[in-house]
Amino acid sequence: MERVAIIGASMTQFGQREAWLQELLAEAAIDCLEDAGVTGEEIEHLYVSNMASGEYEGQTGAVNALAHDIDAMPAYTQRVDQTSSSGGAGMFAAWQSVASGASGMTLLVGGEKMTHRTTAEATDVIASLTHRVEYKHGITLPSFAGLTARHYLERFDAPRESLGKVAEKNHRNGVDNPNAQFQKEVDLETILESPIVADPLRLYDFCPITDGSAALLFCPESVATEYADEYVVVSGIDGATDTHVVHERDDPTVMRGVVESGKGAYEMSGYGPDDIDVAELHDMFTILEFLQMEGLGFAEQGEAWKLIEEGYTERDTGEFPINTSGGLKSKGHPLGASGVAQAVEIYEQLMGEAGPRQVEADVGLTCNVGGFGNCVITTIMEAGQ
Amino acid sequence: MTMEATRYEDGSITYPGHPVGPNGSEPVETIDLSEYTAEVITWTTSTATPPGVREPNTMAIVEFDVSEASSDASSSRTQSGDESESVRVLGQVTTDEIETGDEVRPVYVEELREPGVGIREPESQDWDGYRFEPV
User: Fold this and answer.
1) Which backbone phi and psi does A9 adopt, to 5 degrees?
2) A4-116+209-224 is classed CATH 3.40.47.10
3) How distant is the Cα of B70 from the closest Cα of chain A, in angstroms?
């Protein structure tokens, strides 16, 4: 099986953009190809990670449109939808295409256009992934987060402030990310006094609604040196699912998709939690950062909040930086783009290109969560040799 | 109107039921949860609700103990592996005054949210069901 390298990466400005999906995808794709010195004609497989372009803007067939816009024809094209983990699922598809030998050059572009919708409409599109018995009660993904956060705080006697500190940290990191939707610090008092959205969680416990796109270029490691002196290798990647009906899970604080995808990625890479130097976790809601830290073995169950309180995950002073990009919380969450953008951040960290966000890292991890842990992709990356 | 949970060959119970149950087991019977009370496991009040949903919307995950409904309790296994038989359900709550550990009972409601206002096709599912009311 071919070792798979990443030789180019890009992301657009995240936030409220005038561009629609087709333009956002092309913007990231062209930047990524320029970063790698590769032309559209060299692409053999082209994947677009996107959750809901049909629902959000009435645009389907976006991947074919992109192939035409960047002159990638006659490349094989495929859209990848795995709700919020579409980006991670696209990573898996792109990795498979190269590792299997089916493609010698694969471009992955993730994107979503959301901000033209009201918050209620955007929330409902996302909530449409839920089971009928959940949807009719008006469940939303933020509501699942509120239910889980209350259970976590009560069961593990964790202080409400610890969740606020996740938001505070990630906003602080986002200040140094020029592509982040929010590039401003938010103090803990403001976070804890912001309006309630899903009790006990408040406005700053949630990521924003975002437009944006991100891209990565994959090829066999044997080919990578033809294009770049330095590159990144995908060391391990795996995906897993949990119950569609969230309340059927035995333990509301355990996301089996996180645990199982993490196990698979660790096994493939030969690395374990102690080997990971930096991680991008899916902090769509602050409570998710705790659940992923625990599910991936960075903390014991019920104890991630203590590491946050100790500053263990701080970018500049902590032993194990988490969400150096600002995370979904600060950077934004254009659904199909987020998993790709997580990997763009780890790529830049491993290449030494993260500027003021740079940390010392040889091995990095991303965890991209779809639904409320319904489907998860974990990826481990390291600098190429 | 009923709120039917499904029991499977291996004794596990889920709400809603599935064509194939946990551990690949077959459905064997249904249990009407509307006849039972339940305990609140966790709850939230959502203030940012989708189109057609009441605002605020208090919801809870509750756990029903249905051990007395077992046709053969000695051979039944629960989700958690203990002696009691339990099944969890998510639903709206009739009041904002709710706490973890409260006992609640199901109360029938003809329309939990307005069909056709949200993104989901109104004919694709039912919209009535049960809210949970503190006992």
Assistant:
1) -155, 150
2) yes
3) 19
- What 3-state class would DSSP assign to A207? coil
Least Cα distance to A153 among B44, B90, B47, B91 occurs for B44
Ranges of chain B with pLDDT below 50: 71-83
Name the residue facing A124 among B46, B89, B118 (closest C-beta).
B118
d(CA A140, CA A372): 10
Window 203-222 of A, Cβ < 8 Å to B: none
Partner-chain residue, chosen from A135, A195, A252, that has the shortest CB–CB distance to B42: A252
**B20 CB within 8 Å of a chain A CB:** no
Query: What strand order describes the sheet that includes A106-112?
Result: A76-80, A45-49, A106-112, A212-220, A4-11, A232-241, A375-383, A363-370, A278-281
Q: Measured between alpha carbons, how far is A207 from A115 in angstroms, rounded to an integer?
A: 13
A327-357 pLDDT per residue, tens = 999 999 999 999 999 999 999 999 999 999 9
> How large is the ipTM?
0.95
Best to test chain A binding among B46, B86, B94 (most A CBs inside 10 Å): B46
Task: Give B-chain residues touching A139 at CB under 8 angstroms.
Answer: 59, 90
| SS3 call for A383 | strand
Inspect the interface and report whether the beta carbons of B92 and A133 lie closer than 8 Å.
Answer: no
Chain B environment of A285 (Cβ under 8 Å) = none
Interchain contact B26–A (C-beta under 8 A) = no
Nearest CA among A105, A95, A79, A25 for reference residue A381: A95
Residue B15 in contact with residue A133, Cβ under 8 Å?
yes
How close A197 gets to chain B, by Cα (Å)? 5
Phi, psi of A119 (to 5 degrees): -55, -40
Distance from CA of B48 to the nearest CA of A (A): 6
- B95 close contact with A: CB closer than 8 A: no
Q: Whole-angstrom Cα distance, residue A131 to residue A150?
A: 22
Alpha-carbon span A51 to A49, nearest angstrom = 7
Give the span between the Cα atoms of B90 and A5, in whole angstroms: 44
Contact residues for A97 (Cβ-Cβ < 8 A; gap 6+): A44, A45, A47, A103, A106, A218
Chain A neighbors of B89, CB-CB under 8 A: 247
Q: Where are the domains of chain B?
A: 4-134
Mean pLDDT on A10-33: 98
B60 CB-side CA count, 13 A: 27
